[in-house]
């Protein structure tokens, strides 16, 4: 599957202003405010922009940082890592491999077995839950 390429105008039609700011302009949501920062719901976290599976809820943990944190991606090749020297810091940015959406950053202070903390903006994700909603369960 090749790279998904859209203009800013196309992305703006598909995303909320906050989602666009974070995923396409490398923004960050305030800590402890995103939809998934303390979610315990099971499922697969996919890219908000293109739907690519990125993380499993089985690798999500409470890092105390205020953003959803995972210790590994769902599959090799789902996420690309880029050097980020913005704001006077040296960090590793993580982006969706398929559409280059900004997800957040990865740090080397996570739990075993990887020792990594993928710190992700909730606005970059969409949870595909295993749970059925009432409409599916009760016709």
UniProtKB/TrEMBL annotation:
Protein source organism: Acinetobacter tandoii DSM 14970 = CIP 107469
InterPro entries: Met_Sox_Rdtase_MsrB (IPR028427), Met_Sox_Rdtase_MsrB_dom (IPR002579), Mss4-like_sf (IPR011057)
GO CC annotations, alphabetized: cytoplasm
One MF term in the entry's GO annotations: zinc ion binding
Protein name in the entry: Peptide methionine sulfoxide reductase MsrB
SUPFAM superfamilies according to UniProt: Mss4-like (SSF51316)
GO biological process: protein repair; response to oxidative stress
Gene this chain is encoded by: msrB
Cofactor(s) needed by this chain: Zn(2+)
Residues covered by the MsrB domain: 8-130
């Amino acid at each position: 599957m090749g790279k998904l390429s859209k203009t800013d105008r196309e992305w703006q039609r598909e995303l909320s202003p906050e989602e666009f700011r974070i995923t396409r302009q490398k923004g960050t949501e305030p800590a402890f405010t995103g939809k998934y920062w303390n979610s315990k719901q099971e499922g697969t976290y996919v890219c908000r922009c293109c739907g690519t599976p990125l993380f499993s809820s089985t690798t999500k943990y409470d890092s105390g940082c205020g953003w959803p944190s995972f210790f590994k991606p769902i599959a090799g090749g789902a996420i690309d890592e880029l050097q980020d020297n913005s704001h006077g810091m040296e960090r590793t940015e993580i982006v969706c491999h398929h559409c280059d959406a900004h997800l957040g950053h990865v740090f080397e202070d996570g739990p075993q077995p990887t020792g990594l903390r993928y710190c992700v903006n909730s606005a970059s994700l969409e949870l595909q839950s295993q749970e059925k909603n009432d409409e599916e369960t009760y016709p």
